[in-house]
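Exercise 7. Given the encoded structure of a 482-residue chain, write a plausible sequence.
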């Protein structure tokens, strides 16, 4: 008879003007464990859908799939589908199955273009209904999980810039697969956070996430740490020890700073990736492991392959999906968000009353190139939160960020970022940071020449005095004191 495994569960809305059809579908679906709501018009069905989609509406049941007749009095099933596309921003927010006793090819084509999940013809076959609804509910569940993962990734990976939004999209997409991922980026960009987000977006999220810092483990110990050892395998091995690959069985292991791993250990990692088996140091029997491997590095592995410092075969095994984490310099607009987030966190964690950041201080934060990326920014915000007497002012910022030594403003640090005479630009510096640094250094030089007389400097620069004041505030330039 019907599909016996497993029960449907979920809530389905049936919209049909024929009472017998609604009753038949209710009997079939409730017999499979589903909850069924029904309506005899599209207008009534739309009201139920809107109540369901409105978060926190009391008494609203969460509809997970919709079955709707094409021909209805008043609004048709296809018109309802169009309304749902408007609600969903271009695609229906719930899977929609259209049913019709008089389907035409043009109806089916239009339904497909509008994003209908399926199209049933009357008379309805019981098994076809059960299988189709089960698929629709699975689709709903998958989409709900993706939305949840995206929301979680956005909460943990702070940033609204296009590079960060694209990174979150890639994390969610690759997380749902079994592919190995190579995460590349400068130190301090948050590569471990990306790896954790990939793990959380995977089917392994309930299992262990194990991080290995390959650069921090001495060369002579890395094999024992990764693969474990047997008792007596070497001096000091007084007992058997499981390695980190075994501990991560069923979950995910992050090989952080993989570029610093020596060639001997690389060969053994390669064997584990190829065979799914490892051998403890001093062991005689291979051990099967099921581990998803992620790797991260701030070094250019392709260059290390070219110089023979990294195995080419291991590189291709690890870099199935390469992900690049952008530097903070290449995330326009994100500095202010991160400053606010980490300042609030630092105040909360240290029992300090909430503080604000002045416009001048924020302007200095915005133009600073952040060579240490997000890690440096987090540390700076904790420092200024603790040491400042009140809200964060320009004078509270570290010397390298505020651009002067407090008493000798003309010696501001912008010129140290860009040596104009030699044309040297720090590696990886964005166009915006370069432009702001050059402009800052140029204005400081002119102010120095005119003894910090803003009117004369503005005249020499051929700009309005008020415009120069705005520039100085935006670039964090202070008048010389004393």
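Solution.
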């Amino acid at each position: 008879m019907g599909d016996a495994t497993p029960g449907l569960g979920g809530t389905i809305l049936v919209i049909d003007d024929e009472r017998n059809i609604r009753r038949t579908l209710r009997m079939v679906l409730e017999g499979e464990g589903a909850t069924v709501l029904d309506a005899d018009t599209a207008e009534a069905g739309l009201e139920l859908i809107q109540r369901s989609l409105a978060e926190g509406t009391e008494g609203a049941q969460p509809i997970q799939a919709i079955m709707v007749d094409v021909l209805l009095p008043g609004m048709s099933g296809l018109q309802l589908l169009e309304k749902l596309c408007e609600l969903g921003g271009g695609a229906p927010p719930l899977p929609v199955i259209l049913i019709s006793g008089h389907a035409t090819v043009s109806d089916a084509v239009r339904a497909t273009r509008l994003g209908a999940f399926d199209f049933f013809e009357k008379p309805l076959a019981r098994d076809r209904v059960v299988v189709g609804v089960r698929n629709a509910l699975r689709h709903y569940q998958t989409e709900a999980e993706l939305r949840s993962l995206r929301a979680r990734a956005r909460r943990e990976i702070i940033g609204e810039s296009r590079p960060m939004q694209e990174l979150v999209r890639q994390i969610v997409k690759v997380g749902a697969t079994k592919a190995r991922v190579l995460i590349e980026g400068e130190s301090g960009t948050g590569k471990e956070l990306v790896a954790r987000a990939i793990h959380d977006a995977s089917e392994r999220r309930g299992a262990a996430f194990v991080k290995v810092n390959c650069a921090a483990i001495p060369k002579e110990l890395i094999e024992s740490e990764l693969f474990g050892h047997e008792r007596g395998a070497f001096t000091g091995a007084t007992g058997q020890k499981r390695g980190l690959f075994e501990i991560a069985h069923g979950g995910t292991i992050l090989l952080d700073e993989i570029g610093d791993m020596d060639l001997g250990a690389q060969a053994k990692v390669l064997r584990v990736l190829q065979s799914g088996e490892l051998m403890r140091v001093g062991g005689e029997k291979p051990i099967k492991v099921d581990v998803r491997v992620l790797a991260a590095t701030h070094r250019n592995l392709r260059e290390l392959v070219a110089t023979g410092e990294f195995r080419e075969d291991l590189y291709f095994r690890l870099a199935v999906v390469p992900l690049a984490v952008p530097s903070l310099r290449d995330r326009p607009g994100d500095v202010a968000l991160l400053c606010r987030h980490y300042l609030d966190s630092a105040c909360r964690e240290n029992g300090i009353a909430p503080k604000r950041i002045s416009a001048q201080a924020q302007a200095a934060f915005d133009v600073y190139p952040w060579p240490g990326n997000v890690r440096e920014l987090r540390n700076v915000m904790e420092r200024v939160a603790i040491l400042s007497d009140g809200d964060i002012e320009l004078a509270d910022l570290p010397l390298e960020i505020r651009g002067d030594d407090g008493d000798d403003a003309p010696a501001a640090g912008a010129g140290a970022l860009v040596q104009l005479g030699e044309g040297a630009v720090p590696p990886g510096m964005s166009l915006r940071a370069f432009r702001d640094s050059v402009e800052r250094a140029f204005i400081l030089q002119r102010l120095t020449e005119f003894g910090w007389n803003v009117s004369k400097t503005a005249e020499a620069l051929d700009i309005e005095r008020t415009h120069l004041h705005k520039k100085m505030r935006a670039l964090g330039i202070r008048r010389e004191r004393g």
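Remark. The first helix runs from residue 19 to 31. Students should compare their own answers with the one above.
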